[in-house]
Amino acid sequence: MTPTRQDCSVLDAADPLAPLRGEFALPESTVYLDGNSLGVLPKATAARIAQVVQHEWGKGLIRSWNSAGWITLAARLGDKIAWLIGAGAGEVVVADSTSVNLYKVLKAAVTLGEPNPKRRFIVSERSNFPTDLYIADSVAREHGLTLKLVDADELATQLDDEVAIVLLTHVNYRTGRLLDMAAITAAAHAVGALVVWDLAHSAGAVPVDLKLANADFAVGCGYKYLNGGPGAPAFVWAHPRHTERMDHEQLRQPLSGWLGHRAPFEFTADYRPALGIQRFVCGTPPVLSMAALECGLDVFMQAERHGGMPALRRKSIALAALFIELVETRCVGHGLTLVTPREPALRGSQVSFAHANGFAAMQALIARGVIGDFRAGTADDTNQSSDLLRFGFTPLYTRFVDVWDAADHLHAVLETGEWREARFSQRAAVT
Amino acid sequence: MTPTRQDCSVLDAADPLAPLRGEFALPESTVYLDGNSLGVLPKATAARIAQVVQHEWGKGLIRSWNSAGWITLAARLGDKIAWLIGAGAGEVVVADSTSVNLYKVLKAAVTLGEPNPKRRFIVSERSNFPTDLYIADSVAREHGLTLKLVDADELATQLDDEVAIVLLTHVNYRTGRLLDMAAITAAAHAVGALVVWDLAHSAGAVPVDLKLANADFAVGCGYKYLNGGPGAPAFVWAHPRHTERMDHEQLRQPLSGWLGHRAPFEFTADYRPALGIQRFVCGTPPVLSMAALECGLDVFMQAERHGGMPALRRKSIALAALFIELVETRCVGHGLTLVTPREPALRGSQVSFAHANGFAAMQALIARGVIGDFRAGTADDTNQSSDLLRFGFTPLYTRFVDVWDAADHLHAVLETGEWREARFSQRAAVT
Fold first, then answer.
1. Distance CA B210, CA B7 (A)
2. Complex confidence, ipTM
3. Residue A147, Cβ neighbours under 10 Å: how many?
4. How far is CA B55 from each of CA A20, A292, B79, B293, rounded to the nearest angstrom?
5. Smallest Cβ distance to B46: which of A54, A231, A254?
C-alpha cells in the first residue's frame, strides 16, 4: 500500500528530530530538497551576523581579533565539526574553500615521507566532482604524477604499489552513492598509498568516522549539510600521525600564509609551520562567513540532544526510502530511472533519478515550489547516459509530508506534461 | 606655529571629503587610526548583510546564485576595485585571501613562457610582510628557485638577468614607505623579469596605476583601506597581455577550482581555464563576506563625486604631515623616532614612530580611545632596531581634529608616563 500524506503526518508526529525544524527560517510553501547544494538559513544566524557586523566589527574594530575570539575561529569551528566526522578535538580547522583545502592536503600528502618514483599515480573516481579532479590533476602534474580515473567498482582491482594517493569523495555528488570509507582506506593502505576523503556530501549527512577508518586526510564543505551559508568556508583534517610526527616540519603545504605560522605575530621572515592542524590555515579568515557557519554547526550541537547523527541517519534513510517508493509507485511509465543505490547502506542523503528531460522537469517542479536540482549528463560520464533530477534530504528540517508533497508534484509535472512548456526549457547561466 | 585644535577644525570645515565620514558607523569617542589593519564599518553594510542573509539566502536559497547575482560577485567586485588601481573593467576578480592569490600569481608567473634555468631568483624586499615571503619561498622551492631578499634601496642594483620574478609590496606594512611602482617595474622588465605587486596597503590609500606602470600581476586586500570587513576576500589582477595571449592556456595557476573553469556548469572532467582573469577564481565565494566588501567599495564610488583618489591622496598627505608635525613638536625628548619617509611622495597613508616601549605606549593610547597599532621589531629587521607605533590615516573618515586629538593623547601618555603602568605591558595573544 503506497503511503498516504496522512501516513507521513503520523511519521512526522513520531519524529524525535521534528523540533529541530523550528531552528530554521524556511520559506513558506516551499519544499526545499537542495540542502546538498546550499543548506537553509538557521534562525539564529541573522541575529548573530548582525552582532558580528554592528558590535564586533563596528564597535570592537581591530580589538575583536582578541576580544571576540576571531583569531581562534578556525580552530573553534574545527572543533564543532570534528565530532561529526570522527575526528578529535584540535584536529580540524575551518579555512578557505574545499578546493583550496584539497590542494593543500594533496600537496602535503604527495611530499610526505620519502619520494618513491614507482608511486606514479593519484587515483580518483571517474565521476568525482570535477573540481576535485582539476585540483588533483594540478598536483599530479606538478609532481610528475598521473591522475588515473577509475570507476568506483574498479577501485579494489586498481590499487597497487604504483599508487601514491587515493582521492575520493565519500558520497558522489550525482548519484548519491556512498563509498565504504573503512574498506577502501584499508585497501589503499595495504598497497602503501595515502587516502584523502572529500566529505562535501557527507559531513552532517551521514555518520563519518575518519579515525576509525584510519584515513589520512579529509576536506569538506561548510555550505551544504552544515548550513553555513552561501560559500561558507571549508574544513580540513589530517590524521594526528601526520601532524604530530617528531619531524613535524615534514608535513608541509605550500600555502604557507601567516596564520599557519607557529608564531604569526612574531613576523619572522622564515616560515615555521604551526603545530598540529593549524598549519593548514593560510590567510586571514572571512569572519562574517565564519560566524554564519558557526550558527549552522551549533544546530548540530542541539541535534545531539535529539539522538545525534544516528538519529539523523535513520531519518535520512527513511526520507529517501519513502521518496523512492512514492516516485517509483506513482510515476510509473514516465521515464524516471533511479540512479541512487537502492540499498540504504550504499547511499548518502540524496536520491537522483535520470530523466531524458530532466532540466525542464526540474524547472517545472521548482515553479511548483519544490526545489531540487538538476545535473546534466556529461560526455565523460560512463555511469549514466542522461540528465539527473537530484533531491537532497536534510533530516534536520525535512518532514515526511515534504517528501510526500515533492513526489506528488513530480507526479503532477510528469502526468500533466507541463514540463513541455517553453518557459521551463530556458536555461539560466547557472543551473 | 604648531597648529591648534581650532586650526584643525577649520581644515575639516574646508575638507571636500568631509561628508563621507557620515557613511561610516564610527564608535563614539574613539579616534581610529588602524584602518590599515581593519577598516571601519560602512553604515550601509549592516542592512545589506541582513538583506543577503534573510532575503537572498533565507528566501531565495539556491536560486540566488542567479537571481541575486552571487555567481558574478567575483567579477562585479573586481570591477569596483579596478578603477582604484589603474586596471581596466574585467581585469580584476575578488577571491580567496591575499596569501592564496599571491600563490596563484607567483605560480602563474613562474611557469609563464619558456623555462630559463638562468633565471633562478625571486627577489623581494627584506622587510616585506612575512606572509608574502613565506608564499614566495614556497613557490621558489617548488620550482628550484631561490628567494632573495634585499633592502628596498638595493633593488636597483640587485636586478639582473638571473631574476625571474620581483615581488614587492607597494607600501611597506611597518614603515609606510611607498615604492616607485613605475620605475621598479621598468627596471625589472629591463632585465627580463616579471613584477608582482602586493597592494595590501595601497589600494584605496594611494593612487595606483598598474597599467601605466605596465606591471604584470597584482594582489591586494579587501579589509584594510577598502573597508570590506574582517577577513574580507582579496583581489587579483593580471595584465591583459598575459590573460589574453593567443595560447591562453599557457597562463595557468594550479588552484584550478571549478569557478575558474571556462564552463563550470558543464562539469567536464578536464580543466580548461576561463578566459581572462576569471581563471584566477578557484572555489565558491564566501557570499556574506563578499557582500560586505561590496559595501566598502561602494563608498569609493561616492568618493569619486567628492574628488576621488586625487582628493583622498591630498587629504591623506595632509593628515599624515599634520600628525608628524604635531608629534615631533609636542613630544620632543620622549624617544620617538619617525621611521616613515618625511617626503610625502615616498609614503603611503600611514605614519610609524619607533619607540623603545612601543607596546606599552600603544596600549596606554588605546586605553585613552586612540586606536593605532603596534608592530614589534623583528630579529631579521635591519631597517630599525626598535618597536613601532603605527598610525593609519584613512581620509574617507579621519578628520584633522582626530589627528590633533591623537597627537595630544600620545603626548599625554608619554608626558605622564602612564604607559609604565603594569596593565599596559601585558600582551594579549594578538597585538
1. 37
2. 0.96
3. 20
4. 21, 15, 25, 18
5. A54
